[in-house]
Amino acid sequence: MKSIITNSVLAFTAFLMLSCNGKSGLIIAQKDYNPYLEIKDNKSKDFAQNEIYFWQKKYDAAPNQISYLSLLASNYSKLFENTGDVKYLYKTEELLLKSNEAYKYSNVGTIRSLARNYISQHRFREALALANKALSIGEGMKETQKLLFDVNMELGNYKEAEQNLTFINDKTDFDYLIRISKWNDHLGDLKTAISFMEKAKDIAIANENKSLKIWTYSNLGDLNGHAGNIETSYHYYLKTLAVEPNNSYALKGIAWIAFSYEKDTKEAIRIIDTISKRHHTPDFYLFKAQIADYQKNTALKNENLKHYFAMLNTINYGAMYNKYNTLIYAEDKKTASKALAIAMIEIQHRPTPDSYDLLAWAYYNMGDTKKALAIAQHYVAGKSFEPKINYHLATIYKANHLKAKIAPIKEELLKSIFELGPNFENKIVIL
User: Fold this and answer.
1) By the 8 A CB rule, do 265 and 293 touch?
2) What torsion, rounded to 10 degrees, do the Cα atoms 355, 357, 363, 366 define?
3) pTM to 2 decimals?
4) What are phi and psi of 280, to 5 degrees?
5) Count of CB atoms within 10 A of residue 262's CB?
6) Number of structural domains in the chain
7) Which UniProt keywords apply (predicted)?
8) Torsion, Cα of 248, 250, 256, 259 (10° steps)
9) What count of Cα atoms within 13 Å lies in the side-chain half-sphere of residue 310?
10) CA distance 82 to 45
11) Does some domain include residue 107?
12) Domain containing 342 — which CATH number?
């Protein structure tokens, strides 16, 4: 009798916690962000295109001026950020390869630029090779250490990343502050991560640097959302848009608040449909599939997933969507073996707890709960604070009847409903 009463109390407590994490008053208001949805022009995009036209003419007239290639590459990279069109990312790579070949891979600046392009393409091992090449040349060591930190974090080389961070230690340096913020986020210390990002923001404001303001405001939107500071998150997304009215990332953040916090699916879809017209990427279909799943509209969910895969089949995104594909395939036992194959590739690309989580999750969905547990315990448990990873971990524990290990994870997951999304509410309660 006691266990029944205890379970009832726990279930009721969980319900209360979910209610607190759920809708407790409207935060977003159309009047705040509608002006950014209604914008017809795109000044940042137009500026980049004009710069490309200018420097291309200069390069055509003087093809011996190698520096023009880097200027062209920089503006194609800005077009990619602005539109999400991956052809601009590949054009950037083409120009940087040409530039590096002309310099015979002796210019650390262009080597680092190519490495950053490879990071965007999720070609992390190639990026690391280039970063080490720049390091061996010996010029601009601090900038190269920053690059090495970024690559090592992507690859799960956390000891090396910490050493890179020690090398660039300077609390007055914007680049150091955003990286120490990322490091603390990795450690699960969101309060400290936000604190360092706030300091970076102050530097961006003091220097009146538009791109750095956009970077810090949008990241503070994310970090505060993860910390449960939803209203603060919303205001930082608005601050991002005030600086860059076409910033689709901030608008997507607002759409997530509409969906995950306010449960306003209609408004979330309205925002997504508007921004996807000017920043068309596959992940918007995934967002809409999540919403359809929440609405229990299986047909609409499958339709959005169909559009997602059609886009991937039409456009070559390389390994950029491997994680999402693994999670989608793992949902269905008929395609779980596909999830396993992609997870194996991801581990080769980046042997992080995140990648091993995909592998464990694939095995779990194939019915091999023992193998899933062995992988999760060795490579995932205690190595990540990502809510979705820890939800997978708790689910695998449950399948292996390790109830004692679930309780502390469940407590943290209940605090992360906003980040996970409302589709996880019931799943967490029944863990």
Assistant:
1) no
2) -100
3) 0.92
4) -90, 105
5) 18
6) 1
7) TPR repeat
8) -80
9) 7
10) 6
11) no
12) 1.25.40
User: Look-up: residue for tokens 């205001």?
Assistant: 235
**Structure-block tokens of residue 87:** 């052809």
Question: Which tokens go with 238?
Answer: 């608005």
Return d(Cα 184, Cα 188) in angstroms, integer: 6
User: Which two three-digit tokens encode residue 250?
Assistant: 């901030």
Question: Helix (H, G, I), strand (E, B), or coil: what is residue 160?
Answer: helix
In a domain, 235, yes or no: no
Token pair, residue 141, equals 């060591």
- Distance between CA atoms of 129 and 155, rounded to whole angstroms? 12
Burial (CB count <10 Å: 0-12, 13-18, 19+), residue 243 = middle
Q: Which residues contact 4 (CB under 8 A, 6 or more apart)?
A: none
Token look-up 């608008």 returns: 251
From first to last of its 431 residues, the chain has per-residue pLDDT tens of: 333 333 333 333 344 344 444 444 689 999 999 999 999 899 999 999 999 999 999 999 999 999 999 999 999 999 999 999 999 999 999 999 999 999 999 999 999 999 999 999 999 999 999 999 999 999 999 999 999 999 999 999 999 999 999 999 999 999 999 999 999 999 999 999 999 999 999 999 999 999 999 999 999 999 999 999 999 999 999 999 999 999 999 999 999 999 999 999 999 999 999 999 999 999 999 999 999 999 999 999 999 999 999 999 999 999 999 999 999 999 998 999 999 999 999 999 999 999 999 999 999 999 999 999 999 999 999 999 999 999 999 999 999 999 999 999 999 999 999 999 999 999 999 99
372 assigned to some structural domain: yes
- Please give the single-letter amino acid code of residue 351: P
Q: What is the DSSP code (8-state) at residue 260? A: I
Task: Please give the angle made by the CA atoms of 175, 162 and 361, to the nearest 5 degrees.
Answer: 105
Domain-located, residue 327:
yes
Which residues have a Cβ under 8 Å from the Cβ of 318 and sit 6 or more positions away? 121, 122, 123
Determine the residue type at 59: Y
Which amino acid belongs to residue 273?
A: D
Give me the residue label for tokens 């959005």: 304
Intra-chain end-to-end CA distance of the chain, in Å: 21
Structure letter (DSSP) for residue 385: -
Helices (H), 261-386: 265-275, 283-294, 298-314, 322-331, 336-349, 353-365, 369-379
Structural domain of residue 333, as residue ranges? Answer: 318-431
Q: What CA–CA distance (Å, rounded) separates 363 from 247?
A: 38
